[in-house]
Design brief:
- The chain contains four helices and seven strands; from the N terminus they run αβαββαββαββ.
- It is an alpha+beta fold.
- The protein has a five-stranded mixed β-sheet, covered by helices on one side. A two-stranded antiparallel ribbon has the order 1-3.
- Strand 6 and strand 7 form a beta hairpin.
- The chain is globular and about 65 Å long.
- The protein starts with a helix and ends with a strand.
Length: about 190
């Protein structure tokens, strides 16, 4: 019945929230292995449901070497960002652009080069007042849609556990860009 469906949906949302809370409060130990980030992003794209009106542009650098990373956790990062991009695209028509490239060190004394990953969408954007809060636990603009506010908090935690950085820029009505920087060497 309709009432049972609503209860089932609420139970699923609660189960997801409990799992997210456990993952956030007790982060899993990294299981590092060499990974091709371009392939991992493609695997993450296979896990999300793309509407037929959403196009994905891939701008992958072929010079990006394999990197030490936790495959499951990094796939969670990419899947979460992609799902947020898909939800932000209204009328099921839009674009997601994904870019990867190596960043060079700022000086010759530091050999640790960085990998740059960018997720750009032309969705509804994020209000400027929210940009400082989106990585905080429990902050969500999608409570009515079952959002727990834990997704981007966990994303940031995973990126930081890989000794990386993540930030976001956005403009209402224009879209959002997530920038991830990960070191090649740990």
């Amino acid at each position: 019945t309709e009432k049972e469906d609503k209860l089932r949906l609420q139970a699923d949302n609660m189960e997801k929230l409990v799992k997210d809370l456990l993952n956030y409060s007790r982060p899993k130990e990294l299981k590092l292995s060499l990974v091709n980030i371009n392939e991992l992003i493609d695997m993450s794209l296979d896990l999300v449901r793309l509407d037929s009106g959403i196009t994905v542009e891939r701008h992958y650098s072929e010079t990006v070497p394999k990197k030490n990373g936790d495959i499951d956790q990094m796939r969670r990062v990419f899947t979460n960002i992609l799902e947020n991009s898909i939800k932000s695209i209204k009328n099921e028509k839009g674009r997601i652009k994904i870019s990867t490239r190596p960043l060079r060190p700022l000086s010759n004394f530091r050999r640790n080069t960085w990998l740059y990953i960018e997720f750009l969408d032309d969705g509804e954007g994020i209000p400027e007042d929210f940009l400082d809060k989106i990585f905080e636990p429990f902050f969500t603009t999608r409570k009515n849609e079952g959002g727990s506010g834990m997704g981007l908090a966990i994303v940031k935690q995973i990126i930081e556990s890989h000794k990386g950085f993540i930030d976001v820029t956005s403009k209402l009505g224009k879209g959002t860009i997530f920038n991830i920087r990960l070191p090649y060497l740990r």
